[in-house]
Amino acid sequence: MKKISLQWRLTLMTSLLIAISCIVLNLLLYRTGSFYMESLGDSVQDYGISFALPKVQDPDNLYIDIPENNWDDFVSQFSIQVVDTKRGYGIYGWLITAVITLLSGFLTYFISGQALKPLRAFSRQVAQVQFQNITDCSVTPNGVPEFRQLCQSFNQMLERLSAAFQSQRQFTGNAAHEFRTPLALMQAKLDLYSSAPHPGTDPETAETLTMMQEQVERLSKLVKTLLDMSELQTIQRKDHVALIPLMDEVLTDLMPLADSRNITLVQQTSENPASSDHLCVTGSDILLYRLFFNLIENGVKYNRENGSVKIDISKEQNFAIIKISDTGNGISKEYLESIFQPFFRVDKSRSRALGGVGLGLALVREIALLHGGNVSVASSSNAGSTFEVRLPLSQS
Amino acid sequence: MRLLIVEDEKELCDTVAKSLHDIGYEVDTCYDGNTASELIICEKYDLIILDLNLPGIDGMTLLHMLRSDDDETKVLILSARSQIADKVEGLDAGANDYLEKPFHLQELHARVRSLTRRNFIQNDICLSCGDLHFDTRSRVASAHNIPISLTRKENGILEYLLLHQGRPVSQEELIQHVWDSSVDTFSNSIRVHISSLRKKLKQTLGYDPISNRIGEGYQIGGTHS
Q1: What is the pLDDT of residues B18-49, one digit of tens each?
Q2: B24 reaches A (C-beta below 8 A)
Q3: CB B167 within 8 A of CB B176
Q4: Which CATH code, of 1.10.510.10, 3.40.50.2300, 3.20.20.70, 3.90.79.10, is assigned to B2-120?
Q5: Is CATH 1.10.260.40 correct for A235-392?
Q6: With an 8 Å Cβ cutoff, is B192 touching chain A?
Q7: Is the pLDDT reported for residue A355 higher than 70?
Q8: Which pLDDT belongs to residue A297?
Q9: pLDDT tens, A249-260?
């Protein structure tokens, strides 16, 4: 019962009610009808017994002349007729009940559908409120009183939710911010110490210092990424960014890293060069740079020696599709979604060794969503994985 | 060379001061905005390293005060604020450079060198960074004595970056100084020139001397992180 839609539920219940009322009505009508019919039959029989010869001449009354020798025959025929009438009356009664019930049930379906229209409109509105646009979305109440209240509670819930998101973001930002000054001090002290030669240092101290330097470096990176993430929303996204030059620059920037691991970077586009100017996205130049930098950097980092990273830019209706394929080990199926979660790492020790903090892909997804696009793993196998980025093109 | 460091975190201030003193700068320190404002008025500094969050008069106000009658003194903002908007606000108010906390001392040194050296390096005819040389008179770049053929724009970019080596130069700054004010889209065309310049340099030089620092700009020389 729980899985049935509201409209069907209403229809079924109303139909059930109609059916029960009709059945009761029919039963009662049938009983009265048959009672009167029987009394008619009885009266004829009584009459036949008490007045064997009906010879009364009454001009006002219907006069039936039945010969005496046919009388018994008439009485039996009449009683048969009464029984037939009763049965017919009953059958028709049931038939009519059934038809009326079906018909009204059928009508109820449409009428209740009409009555439920505001609910459908409401659910459409709610469906549009997604996680990404939770902050700038509310449901406008329509005329029906019940829904007005529902809308109100829903909007209040949305507000509370977005406030919660906001404060979480702010907290991360503030916390990261507070880390900066102590980190700066530690960094400066360590740098100052190592800038001058200390001949008397024993190996243990030297090791501790190196470890601290590395960890301060890591913390700084983490703080920076956390701040970047918490500040994403406030960055203006009004630049007109041409994707192909941007990609060219990202590749140039990553060339030293790729060279050191002997990985080839290949950029290709299925668009002809003349129309590639139209591959423009409106957004933040810095954020988009980061998006592609992170994705391609991952492609290089988690690749095998002498592998390659291919970047393919194409256009599909109003979207730019950027596919980044590496020749790494691939990502197992169960992680395809979770790799975009903050602090998620498939292989913690390996990723740490490569200098990651587990926020790269989370940042990538946030940026893609902020620009009205999306990012996903299009395919992944032992031979490598392909990330697909969809970004809405600028309206020119 | 005389520097002033304004930073409310005493320990950090002293550490930075010591490190700069060690490499030969005369350094004054001060831990709050009010003292800083007096020092700025009375003394003449070549460079001021300025924190933005200060007790008393805050960093931005100090910067405005200084710039109202002094365009000579270089200012490097050292701040825990990292939002692009803060950076732009600082640079617009007349700061010459902006460094985020936490930072490496080597990085700070490179920036300080870049800012304090600017005046005399411009008198050199030949600019260089490692094996890369640029003759400002004949306008030819060369590496290992092999000339690199560059376009006019690429030459302009390379010259400007070499003049300001050690600190990142933003795209806006490049457009202001290298382009003749007729550039249409802010980043796309400059991006194409830079990428092609870097490829050409790498071909002859064997490595790419220019690094791109996200959100800050392009840098030649100095420490690369």
Answers
A1: 999 888 888 999 999 999 999 988 888 889 99
A2: no
A3: no
A4: 3.40.50.2300
A5: no
A6: yes
A7: no
A8: 92
A9: 899 889 888 988
pLDDT tens digit sequence for A302-316: 888 889 999 999 888
Quickly tell me which residue has 């106000």 as its tokens: B61
Q: What are phi and psi of B55, to 5 degrees?
A: -70, 150
Asked if the C-beta of B153 comes within 8 angstroms of chain A's C-beta atoms, the answer is no
What burial letters (b/e) apply to A155-189, b meaning 16+ CB within 10 Å? beebeeebeeeeeebeebbeebbebbbbbbbbbbb
Report phi then psi at A131, rounded to 5: -55, -40
The CATH T-level fold of domain B124-220 is Arc Repressor Mutant, subunit A (1.10.10)
From CA A374, how far away is CA A376, in angstroms rounded? 7
| Mutation to test the A interface, candidates B5, B7, B12, B14, most A Cβ within 10 Å | B12
Q: What is the pTM of this model?
A: 0.68
> What pLDDT is stored for residue B14 in this prediction?
93
**Torsions phi, psi for B132 (to 5 deg):** -95, 130
Name the segment(s) of chain B with CATH classification 1.10.10.10: 124-220
pLDDT of residue A325: 93
In tens, the pLDDT along A158-184 reads 888 888 878 887 787 778 778 888 999
Say if residue B84's pLDDT is above 80: no
| Phi, psi for A10 (deg, rounded to 5) | -60, -45
Residue A85 CA to residue A69 CA, distance in Å, equals 26
Q: Are the C-beta atoms of A139 and A151 separated by less than 8 Å?
A: yes
Taking an 8 Å cut-off on Cβ atoms, the answer to whether A240 and B105 are in contact is: no
Spatial CA neighbour of A305 closest among A327, A287, A288: A327
Strands A308-316 and A319-326: antiparallel
Average pLDDT score, chain A: 82
Query: CA-nearest residue of chain B to A252?
Result: B195
- Domain(s) labelled CATH 3.40.50.2300 in chain B stretch across 2-120
pLDDT of residue A322 exceeding 90, the answer is yes
Counting one residue from chain A and one from chain B, the pairs whose CB atoms sit within 8 A come to 102
- List, for residues B129-158, the tens digit of each pLDDT value: 888 888 887 888 888 888 888 888 888 889
Report the relative pairing of strands B2-6 and A280-283 from DSSP bridges: unpaired
Distance of alpha carbon A196 from alpha carbon B19, whole angstroms: 10
Chain B residues close to A227, C-beta within 8 Å: 82
Has domain A159-232 been given CATH number 1.10.287?
yes
Residue A376 CB neighbours (<10 A): 14
